[in-house]
Amino acid sequence: MAVAAPHHVIVGNSIAGIEAAITLRNRDRSARITVISAEHPHPFARVSLMYVFCGQLSLKDTQFYPEDLYDRMRFERVTDRVVAVDAAQRTLRLMSGATLAFDTLLLAVGSTARKLPWSNAYADPALPRLVHHFVTLNDLHALDAAAKPGMSVAVIGGGLIGVEAAEVLQQRGLKTHFLIREPWYFPVALDAQESGMVAEHMRGHGVDCRTECSVQGLERAGSKVRLLGPELEVDLVVGAIGVEPATAFLAGSGIALNPETGGVETKDNLESTSCRGIFAAGDCAQVTWLDGSRRPEQLWYTSRDQGRIAAAAMLGDDVCYRRGTWYNSAKFFDVEYTTAGFLPPERTPAGSGWQTWFQRAPDRAVSQRIVVRNGAVKGFNGLGGRWNHNVWMQWIQQRRSLEWVLAHMNEARFDEEFTSPFTVLPSAALTEGA
Amino acid sequence: MQVGLLSTYRNPVQNRAAMAWLWALLLMAFYIDLYFFDHLDVAARLVHLPSKWTLYGLLYSVAMCVGGYFMLRKHGSSRYHQVRTAVLVAVQCTLGFLLPLALDFMGRPAYYFSYFFPLKYDILFPGTLKDMPVAVAIWFIAGSFVGVPLLVFYKGKRAYCSWICGCGGLAETFGDPWRHLSDKSDRAWRVEQISIYMVLALVFVMFGLVIGDAYAADGSAVRAVAQHTRSFYSFAIGSVFSGVLGTGLYPLMGTRVWCRFGCPMAAVLGLIQKFGRFRVTVKKDMCIACGNCSTYCEMGIDVRAYAMANQDFKRASCVGCGMCAHVCPRGVLRLETRDDAGPHEAIGTWTLDL
Ligand SMILES: Cc1cc2nc3c(=O)[nH]c(=O)nc-3n(C[C@H](O)[C@H](O)[C@H](O)COP(=O)(O)OP(=O)(O)OC[C@H]3O[C@@H](n4cnc5c(N)ncnc54)[C@H](O)[C@@H]3O)c2cc1C
Ligand code: SF4
Ligand code: SF4
Ligand code: SF4
Questions:
Q1: Stretch A221-244: mean pLDDT, rounded?
Q2: Residue B245 confidence (pLDDT) above 80
Q3: How high is the pLDDT of residue A294?
Q4: Hey, are the CB atoms on A301 and B286 less than 8 Å from each other?
Q5: Mean confidence (pLDDT) of chain B
């Protein structure tokens, strides 16, 4: 008797979902694979929202697989929102009212913007048009329609999405206030000197970049919004205080969610801890970090890796997802940023065994920071240049000394040709603590 | 965000709107007039230039200077683009305009020393060579068969196509605002692989015939066929394809239509590049799939597919303009000519042969 081909259903067609679907198809030619997404019928790069906003790319340019992907891979496409999952019956319900049965289910639903904590920001019928986010296509369209040159805007939240939003809004000709609660921009990754340099660069572009600026609430003031705390009146507000797993629709489904983060609780193979045959990958999955903590990893490359691992697990492989050495990159206006390894996010005092080597070019927004512990390099931050994080990670693994690394730094450069090479500047300093 | 590229998609001239079609028509009309009529000769005499070709050289140089200025306003933060654009414009202004002009005033034949066989196919015709000073003949022969190939082997096709050649020069400067319009589809890649070698084959056939013709008796069939082939090539490829369409289609199909689909020199240099040292290397696992590299590749190479697959690549068509690397917001790409790590060709993380 022929066994019916299994039906894999994937919710979310962004990087985690589509990589999982492709992995499944490459391994299993006969399986039925359905990919559901509410946002767009074809995968696009979420990281490019800013480029679409400023007209540097069209939305189509951000589609990272050819248009005929679904046909070639024989994915069934459903463009609809999943409103409920019944884990026991193995069905899910769509907004249209239809239900769909699955054998295995992958939740790759990603994240949505974290809402601002003041209830009137969304309750006041007039405010929603004034309060925006920058995470989904709907966010993009709404902000694009609302943001007009000459207006003023407050971007609340000093993270990576905030800086991108501030950049494109400023470029469009809005007076942009970038309000950061912390003492300096992006403190989880940058230290005071690096962040000061970035803030200087942003101010050079005309952004009013304010640190230690805690917004206490919002209030309507005619057609404008008044921000309580900084007492600032602006035409628009962009809330960029982080993202959270888009898992609200799973409440009551029996799929265990982390009460704090809302992430889907997973085992090492990304299967739900509470429901067999249901998996999670990407921004919405609660995973184990290198330091042992459990939280979602909201990154493009890790979402891709998780999608592939989850697909293998869906096919019954004995797999385990573990994030390797940390690395990342970003761009703050024109300043490119690369990081690898571990840089203590909290200040470690002198005598703790940590040391910091830092230098900054006198005339440009270029700097390097290397942290050392017990004679071996542990982490790198490079601003204003291009660095090959793989080479840095190799050096960390090899427990290279600072002297050795400084002598070899040019091997890790990844700049365009004719860029001046790395040199140790007179200002370079090694200090105790990190 | 790349300051110069902002609003690329908002400007009608850059997005195949009516204004773009108007530009295309104007450019085509200009080239038709240049190749097939004499109005520009009249204009040239008015400004005391020897011929319409010198006037064309002047206009071309001006277009490259102005285009180069705007190109550097966008991309001048990169030293690679600064140096490259300066060299391109300088080569055009000197070897492509001033030197031929000076030769002309001295009553000598005007040679364009920056163009080689097979792009400038007629310089090596026996009839042309015969009349050349020996030093000039050596320059063209050695340049075509030794100099440029060696340069390309070590430095990549870019050494010629993005640093010296006037056709590439116009594309990189005046044409820069339209580079994102190149066709990125697989179909375009397939067409390109056929069309470019067809033109190359045609050059060789024509060349064989012309050499045969030099030894053939008057009135022989070879002579007639050679004549016909020459005039066909000169009309269809030399004028219509490389000139009227090659430049006229800038605002509709991007700047490198001729370089990508037709140029016989590109075909040869592309093959040398495949065996040479030049490649685009990919920083492993850092691509965020944003699409800037593919969008701004004027040769229509889907750079992102290689970057996502962590694969360094050598593509025959890559003219090494360096724009993919420059616009990448995560610094994933680099043009390299170091003699290590072999090339990778296939892309395969998601492809499926059913
Ligand atoms: C502006 C911005 C810039 C960023 N820049 C970077 C960067 O530079 N580097 C980096 O590493 N990361 C970056 N990120 C983060 C990165 O985009 C995410 O980590 C990544 O997109 C996560 O992918 P995912 O597949 O998990 O989910 P998502 O990309 O969030 O996609 C989830 C998909 O699921 C769909 N979906 C959700 N719920 C349902 C439902 N109930 N029914 C049907 N469909 C549903 C959504 O519509 C969406 O299409 C950025 C994010 C933003 C917003
Ligand atoms: S492809 Fe041909 S025309 Fe284009 S730049 Fe290269 S040699 Fe010149
Ligand atoms: S691949 Fe890069 S260097 Fe080569 S032609 Fe395209 S953009 Fe230029
Ligand atoms: S290589 Fe760079 S420009 Fe190209 S898609 Fe990846 S991140 Fe974007």
A1: 95
A2: yes
A3: 94
A4: yes
A5: 92
Whole-number Å distance, alpha carbon B331 to ligand 4 midpoint, is: 8
Contact by Cβ (8 Å): A129, A214? no
Residues A144 and A41 in one domain: no
Task: Report how far ligand 4's centroid is from the alpha carbon of A390 (Å).
Answer: 17
The domain locations on chain B are 276-350
Spatial contact of B182 and B299, defined as CB atoms under 8 Å apart: yes
Q: Which fold has domain B276-350?
A: Alpha-Beta Plaits (3.30.70)
In a domain, A319, yes or no: no
Nearest atom, ligand 3, residue B321 CA: 8
CATH number at residue A193: 3.50.50.60
A198/A267 same-domain check: no
pLDDT tens readout for residues B149-195 = 999 999 999 999 999 999 999 999 999 999 999 999 999 999 999 99
CB spacing of A73 vs B291 below 8 angstroms: no
Domain end, chosen from A241, A264, A290, is at: A241
Contact B288 A415 (CB under 8 A): no
Q: Residue B337 pLDDT > 70, yes or no?
A: yes
The tally of domains found in chain A comes to 3
Interface probe for B, chosen from A33, A57, A163 (most Cβ of B below 10 Å), is A57
The Cα–Cα gap between B259 and A199 comes to: 44
Does residue A32 fall inside a structural domain? yes
In this prediction the pTM is 0.95
Residue nearest to atom 5 of ligand 4 (CA): B289
Mean pLDDT check: name the lowest of A47-61, A262-276, B200-214, B215-229: B215-229
* Residue among A58, A300, A301 minimizing CB distance to B9: A58
Question: What is the arithmetic mean of pLDDT over A401-407?
Answer: 98
Which residue's alpha carbon is nearest to atom 8 within ligand 4? B290
Last residue of a domain, one of A211, A241, A271: A241
B118 C-beta closer than 6 A to ligand 2: no
One domain for residues A252 and A104: yes
Q: Which two tokens stand for residue B334?
A: 């680099």
Residue at A320 is within a domain = no
Can you give the residue range of the structural domain that contains A406?
327-432
Q: Which atom of ligand 4 is nearest to the CA of B331?
A: 2
Counting ligands in written order, the one closest to the CA of B246 is 2
Check whether residue A129 and residue A233 sit in a common domain: yes
- For residue A253, name the pLDDT band (cuts at 50, 70, 90): very high
- Contacts of residue A297, Cβ cutoff 8 Å, sequence gap at least 6: A283, A285, A287, A289, A303, A306, A323
The single-letter code of the amino acid at B16 is R
For the record, the structure tokens of A34 come out as 């359905």
Mean pLDDT (chain A) is 95
A357 inside domain: yes
- Between A258 and B218, residue with greater pLDDT: A258
